[in-house]
Records
---
Amino acid sequence: MPFVVVLTGGIGCGKSTVASHFSALGVPLIDTDAIAHRLTRAPSAQLDEIARVFGAAALQENGDLNRPWMREQVFADPELRKKLEAILHPAIRQAVEQELSRLAGHPYVLLAVPLYFESSGYHDLAQRVLLVDCLPEQQISRTMQRSGLSRETVAAIMQTQVTREFRLQHADDVIDNSGEEANLHDKAIKLHALYLGLAKNFNKST
């Protein structure tokens, strides 16, 4: 397995933007959200199981996951969220491991896990945790602009995630994304050099 840097952060912090700067430097990206989207487009075994557990309302007419409906269900009922995670998370983890094996020749890999701190599913893979951080009000405004969600919905989502203070305390590295995007590339370049050095030592030891 290559050296793995987990990229994480609260909703609306700009994880995808930061990831694009690392991709521009030639760093492979494994995005667990992208994998989840792929698994919830028809046809898939996971969608079949979701329909069995949640009923036909969980799917759109084309067979894909009915995301707005499912979002309402799982935020209203933690037990339903656990049921959805039990269906999707093992398949996502398997896909991640397959991608890591395929990318074994690279110095390091960026693994985007938005809810890294909220679950333990990827803690055993991470050699380094990179947090993308911004002010809570920026999280709300950016998410509203990007997704069209109401302020109340975004705030409710944030309540299900660990606190900003917790993330800052437990991350190895932090990119502050509360300013201009033009500064992000320089920050990515500095961390890229750090990770190349850490990965070199990691690969020697393994």
Note: Residues 78-102 form the longest helix (25 residues).
---
Amino acid sequence: MVSTLQIKGIRDGLLVSLGEGEWPELQETLMDHIHDQEKFFKGARLALDVGNHILHAAEMGSLRDRLSEQGISLWALISNSPTTEQTAQVLGLATRLSTPRPDRSVRPMNTTLATGDDTVLMQRTLRSGFKVASKGHVVVIGDVNPGAEIIAGGNVVIWGRLRGVVHAGAEGDQSAVVCALDLTPTQLRIADKIAIPPQRKGKPQPEMAHIQDGQVVAVPWNPREK
């Protein structure tokens, strides 16, 4: 049985972990997922974690070509296999993910709360490596950078730029919303719906994402409007 793909926003794009299974099946599962979320993956920079799988140049080159045909750039391949790692390096792929500089290194944060009526207030920029989880709402006065992640049972409000990963209504609340002064997330989810990040047109403007007709949509956000 093939493991479920895991997708995570990182500073340099998206990290996809394939898990265990036969390589041909894993590859097809990945391509099927990309096909189903074509607009989400379009133009993405992808780092692929293949775990213990031993891949040779032909397999790796074939996958890179298939991803390129979908508008996806494979820039890194992470593996526990020295053979796979060496082959990736020969093909010009990175085999390590970049990490924050020492003066910017941070510890993951766990702010899970006991009730759903509370709100977490963060008065700082969330850099790569931060993870904030709350059963209630999350408010950030600052930016949410790529590689940072917010999971909230309620709403998420960003008084700044949202470029990381956000999951509002994580316990199934489809009435939850995500608001930001600049809504350009790596990935955005509300309840069980995944948003397709829109292409930026013109200057950033405050926007609110919510579920409408079964899809996550973004509309202009004016807090003064009722």
Note: Helices lie at 23-36, 38-41, 57-69, 82-90.
---
Amino acid sequence: METTRQQKIARLLQKELSEIFRLETAKLGNCLVSVSSVRVSPDLSTAKGYLSIFPSEKSEEVVKSINESAKTIRFELAQRVRFQLRKTPELTFYVDDSLDYIEHIDELLKK
């Protein structure tokens, strides 16, 4: 069960990470990355970001490169939330494959 504080921080991180990824992927122009959800640990030291990536064929390599540059992303995030948070949590990113799962279930139901 998440506390209200965890939920507020998760929403703040999701909003700011979405903006960071929107600006960075606009420069690349080859894929679209959106932050579907963020989960913050109870001690607020770590955050897990779940990313939805289009096209989904590139999702594994994109998440791998994002995790490699997590320190730079954390620094940019810290610059954006420096007045709201005292410490910026450590970031880890995962692929959110819920949309692919929904499509798969729809295909099975159509058969």
Note: Residues 4-28 form the longest helix (25 residues).
---
Amino acid sequence: MIDFNTEKKAEYVQKMFSAIVDKYDLLNTLLSLNRDKYWRKFTAIKSELKPGGRAIDVATGTGELAIELAKLVGANGKVVGVDFVKKMLAKAQEKIKNTKYEKIIEFIAQKAENLPFLDNTFDCATISFALRNVTDVKKTFEEMTRVVKAGGKVISLEFTQPKNFLFRKIYYFYILKVLPIIGGLVSKRKDAYVYLPNSVINFPSKEKLKKIMEDVGLKNIKIYNLTCGVVAIHIGIKP
């Protein structure tokens, strides 16, 4: 297991996601039992974006959440997807090619901790299943908050640890024992699907994540637990 507290993490994450990009969407759907689509749609709805709105999806990956946001802002809106894994962005760009989203979504290669935008640019900032992979969670939230307008939302969709003891035992068995086998067989990169479940277990609790959001100045933070607490959505408002 890599050291979660070193810069080596960024290099590892970049190489890992570059290696599994071709099977990434398939495995997300397979390993989540097809719930990942619902989680993203629910997140997009909670953004409350309006037609003509502007949103940024941080660590966008293959652009799945960016597309959901684009559906809300429409032809007169704008969604920017940011990621530092260029192969992921290439896959995302390929996905929207020759679709109505091609003129709405722009993909930019950049780290989550250093967003290349002015203060108060967007109505909403989202990040999904990626906070576990950044090198600095607080800095990422600071940047997301900075680029959002006053009154705008900062939203995280992330795996978490279920509170129910029995369900947590079953869940841990699945992600630690079953997931690496399936993920490894399909992607040919078992190490990636050993890293990913361990990153869930080592990630801050929902309460700690809420505290980090409060520390960067976000207010009225709400938490939505989905699918028996397998994932959680944190939503904060920029005052």
Note: Strands lie at 54-58, 78-83, 105-109, 122-128, 148-159, 219-226, 231-237.
